[in-house]
Amino acid sequence: MSNSFTHSLGIRHLVCGSCNGCEHEMNALTNPFYDITRDGWDVVASPRHADVISVTGPMSAAMREAAQRTLAAAPAPCLVLAVGDCAAGEGPWAGAPDAGRGAGIELGAAVVVRGCPPTPDAIRQGLREASLLIGRAAPRADPADEPLPEELPAR
Amino acid sequence: MYVEIPLERPDLFDDVLRACSTREPLGAYATNERLNYLFVDGGAVCNLCAARDGADAGESVARSVPLFDWHEREMRDTHGVELTGLPVSRALFVRDGVVPPALTAEGEGVTIIVVGPVHAGIIEPGRFTFSSGGETVVHLDGQLSYSRRGVEAFLEGCDAFAAAPQMARVCGACSVARSWAYARAIETLAGVACDERTEWARLIFAELERIYNHVFDLGSTAAGAGYGYGQTQGLAIKERVHRVCAAAGGHRFLFDAIVPGGVRIGALDAAGALRSDVAKLRSATAEFLDALFGARSVVGRFEGAGRVPRETARAFGAVGPARRASGAAIDMRAVLPYGAYRKLPPEVFSETAGDVAARCRIKRAEIGASFELIDRALAEFGTLPPPPPQRFAAARGRITTVTEGARGAESVSVECDARGHLTRVHIISASYRNWPLVLRAMEGNIVPDFPLVNKSFNLCYACADR
Fold first, then answer.
1. A79-83/A111-113 β-pairing
2. Which residues on chain A are in Cβ contact (under 8 Å) with B465?
3. Counting Cβ atoms within 10 Å, is residue B382 exposed (0-12), middle (13-18) or buried (19+)?
4. DSSP one-letter code for A40
């Protein structure tokens, strides 16, 4: 296996005004042609389990609060992957009255995958980059370094 | 065909009510000047419209005909149309951080379960509020509009041709149906007709879109019943359809494959290769469908779930496979024939059970019919690619055009000024038409069957929210 697969990744997907095209391609990552689970990656049901939050859409006004709360619910280290031109702030709805600056821009994406929608292969490359970044930025603590409690908590 | 019937404002309510009993309603929308109620009448889209006057607010049609509920609330929320007697008064859209309250059931033993707007899978956002008594859903409330970008207002003032790529991206999963409706609107206003090869190409794109959506729906419905093979195999077949789309129309979702005046340059430039790709896809799909429908324990879950009676489907203005599964053989390709469907009318299927199983059977039959249409279109098409899109000037006027997308009637209402700029665009998607029905379909079903029932409709949010 390539060195680039340094981590298993929990991916939580967050839709912020996307047309659903990017969601179809995110879904395709789980089909037998791409099957990201063989890379140790999976789409998780809660931000609590996420290493990466993938975001799509220009950031619809109605999703702004829910998006920020989703990010706040994720444990560190967790980074944002912008998927698609809208999330990058340059999609067809940039400047629309209820659209923001791009979900990836507003939420501080560390990795941006362009495309309308990006192909599953392109998203997979973005995830690989995210995996590397997480490995470099914040290596996981070695459990052996954690002090053990002096006594077990009482039942 | 598009026909306008201008009415005096006080007569509008009565005439619309009368029309509802004899014609198929398509919805309603407002402009700053007028109110428009759309119907299918004979082979034409008929617009019963009246000028707005500030003094007379008028009566709500939704009070008598439920399908206008969302439409009339939207008229109020976007264009300030105040109708008296709206059956539901809360706002339709989330706006300025204010989420409209959910309507819930009250009583002993009723539990409220709120889900969303962020969901557990890779799904568009929406808030669902279940009122359940034990496992049984008493009422389901849906709050959409979380994907609202303000598409229609944004397109006002745009050049009609420059707006085409945006029309293709209002919603990813019904892009072809909407692009085709929009292209027809701009072409019809200018009196432009497309050549035969272009029309065959458009039909092929629209049917490929129907196939990938129906396959996805069936795979997702199988997932709702916990049938892993159905889900995985459905996704695999869908991927193969996207690859055929990319080869045929230059894009995995066929964005921009249909443009005003024609089709994408380079589309269908290898019709011979496409024929053999489609033939392989067709047999793989048939194998998948045989396995899915042969799984008795899975089909058993489909039967009786999410039942929608014929009268409910009509009252809520259901369209597409959802309507056809509930006893009505209504398909816009047949009732408002357009493009190559005039020469090659599709077979229209209908069922009466109105449950998940019936919707699935309709989609299975339609996948077969779509392959048949593509085969015949490819045979007529020959080998030469279609000509490049015609260049013409957009013309002033108003029109509503309708196509049959995978989920049903997709309509685009366009008003264009003398410079060829859009002054009003209104999109009523099949999903917008069918969402209220999904909520009704859950009543009396168990909470864990929501994925099953929901995916048997598999509606989009983006085109309903816009």
1. parallel
2. 60
3. exposed
4. T
Cα(B341)–Cα(B200) distance, integer angstroms: 9
Contacts of B462 in chain A (CB under 8 A): 17-20
Q: Domain B2-79 belongs to what topology?
A: Beta Polymerase; domain 2 (3.30.460)
Question: Residue B123: phi, psi to the nearest 5?
Answer: -135, 150
The highest-level CATH class for domain A9-137 is alpha beta
Measured CA to CA, the distance from residue B86 to residue B79 in angstroms comes to 15
- Cis peptide before A117, with omega less than 30 degrees from 0? yes
B148 in contact with A, Cβ within 8 Å: yes
The whole-angstrom separation of Cα B281 and Cα A30 is: 20
Q: What is the ipTM of this complex?
A: 0.95
Half-sphere exposure of B298 (CA within 13 A, CB side): 22
β-pairing, A79-83 vs A52-56, is: parallel
Q: Which helix (H) or strand (E) holds B14?
A: helix B9-22
d(CA A19, CA B127): 18
Q: In degrees, to the nearest 5, what angle opens at C-alpha B185 toward C-alphas B184 and B191?
A: 80
Which string of b and e fits B91-128 if b means at least 16 CB within 10 Å? Answer: bbbbeeeebbebeebeeeeeeeeeebbbbeebbbbbbb
Q: Which two tokens stand for residue A152?
A: 């077990």
- In CATH terms, the superfamily for domain B158-428 is Cytochrome-c3 Hydrogenase, chain B (1.10.645.10)
Predicted TM-score (pTM) of this structure? 0.93
pLDDT tens for A75-131 read 988 999 999 999 999 999 999 999 999 999 999 999 999 999 999 999 999 999 998
Torsion of CA B164, B166, B167, B173, to 10 degrees: 130
Task: Collect all residues of chain B within an 8 Å Cβ-Cβ radius of residue A103.
Answer: none
What distance in Å separates the CA atoms of residue B233 and residue B230, rounded to the nearest whole number?
Answer: 5
For residue A88 the two structure tokens come to 């990058």
* Extents of the domains making up chain A: 9-137
Closest alpha carbon within chain A to B169: A19
Cα gap B132→A144, rounded to integer Å:
48
Which of A15, A93, A97 is the closest to B125 by Cβ? A15
Contact of A131 with A34, CB cutoff 8 Å:
no
Q: Where are the domains of chain B?
A: 2-79, 158-428
- How far lies B408's CA from each of A24, A85, B31, B325, in Å? 20, 28, 24, 12
> What amino acid is encoded at B258 in this protein?
I
Token pair recorded at residue B389: 């899109």
Q: Which residues contact B442 (CB under 8 A, 6 or more apart)?
A: B130, B137, B140, B306, B449, B450, B453, B454
The pLDDT tens digits for B53-96 are: 765 568 899 999 999 999 999 999 999 998 889 999 999 999 98
Adjacent-strand bridge partners of B24:
B40
Put simply, the answer to whether B150 touches A58 (Cβ < 8 Å) is no
**What is d(CA B282, CA B286) in angstroms, rounded to the nearest whole number?**
6
Which residues 114-143 of chain B have a CB within 8 Å of chain A?
117-118, 120-125
- Helices (H) and strands (E) counted in chain A, each on its own, are 4, 5
Q: Which amino acid is at B193?
A: A
Phi, psi of B159 (to 5 degrees): -65, 135
pLDDT tens-digit map of B417-427: 999 999 999 99
